Automatic annotation (TrEMBL):
Belongs to the TrpC family. This is Indole-3-glycerol phosphate synthase. GO terms for molecular function: indole-3-glycerol-phosphate synthase activity; phosphoribosylanthranilate isomerase activity. The lineage of its organism: Archaea, Methanobacteriati, Methanobacteriota, Stenosarchaea group, Halobacteria. CDD domains: IGPS.
């Protein structure tokens, strides 16, 4: 782990569970990945905000849970204009599973991100996905994991929380970087996190704003700050309302750049 800053108890619990989960005992995954870059470009060309919509049954910061079929949720997100889909595969705290990701990836034609807490190489081989999340704060040898992910065909999305972690990610060769607006100590969200980190990134890096985007105004703010795409979960899933229209929630955010809807 790369920082001495104290983590929130919920995050410590997530990490402990991740350490206890074994990696695959079988073959190394070999992925023929769908390009996220192409998907983001297509969304831009269609006049849509490039949104990675997240199938997240619940989380330690959610108000409730969604029991909907993950495939139905993902299909609704794509219907609403999502450029890509993120699927939680962490079971203990987020209600996800590798099986859900496999079913979603078979059902949609956009890139699918595996959202989990991957700490070692063997944990990459549980399921095929187009993108794989690696969190700078939680791994010891990021450069080796980035290389291992690419060897399997994954596009590694490397998550950072501050400028120091951005430098670590760049040194490891990351060219797809997510800036998480949620602080891992207090679990508070501050969109200024992205605004402070983004200007330090080279222009050839694809930047994804993560967490805290809940309105068209937030979307426009992150886009103005340099976000090439946005990873949005809770605002689309709307965990407090089982009957919330996921397609409409997605559409509301992907249409934000045209100024047709105010927060």
């Amino acid at each position: 782990m790369n920082s001495d800053t104290e983590l929130a108890p919920a995050v410590e619990s997530i990490l402990e569970a991740a350490r206890e989960r074994s990696g695959s005992d079988g073959d190394v995954v070999d992925v023929d990945a769908r390009s996220l870059s192409d998907a983001l470009t297509r969304a831009e060309a269609d006049g849509r905000v490039p949104v990675i919509a997240e199938v997240k049954p619940t989380s330690p910061t959610a108000d409730g849970a969604r029991e909907d079929d993950p495939v139905e949720l993902a299909e609704a997100m794509v219907e609403g204009g999502a450029a890509a889909i993120s699927v939680l595969t962490e079971p203990s705290h987020f209600g996800g599973s590798p099986e859900a990701l496999t079913r979603v990836r078979e059902a949609v034609d956009v890139p699918v991100l595996r959202k989990d807490f991957v700490l070692e190489e063997a944990q990459m081989d549980l399921v095929a996905a187009d993108l794989l999340l690696l969190i700078v704060r939680f791994v010891d040898d990021l450069e080796a994991l980035v290389a291992a992910a690419r060897e399997r065909g994954f596009q590694p999305l490397v998550e950072v929380h501050d400028r120091a972690e951005l430098e670590t990610a760049l040194y490891a060769g990351a060219d797809l970087i997510g800036v998480n607006n949620r602080d891992l100590g207090r679990l508070e969200v501050d969109l200024e996190t992205f605004e402070s980190v983004a200007p330090q990134a080279p222009t050839d890096v694809t930047l994804i704003a993560e967490s805290g985007v809940s309105s068209p105004e937030d979307v426009r703010r992150m886009r103005k700050a340099g976000a090439d795409g946005l990873l949005i979960g809770s605002a689309i899933m709307d965990h407090g309302a089982d009957d919330s229209d996921v397609a409409e929630n997605t559409r509301r955010l992907v249409d934000a750049d045209d100024g047709s809807e105010e927060a």
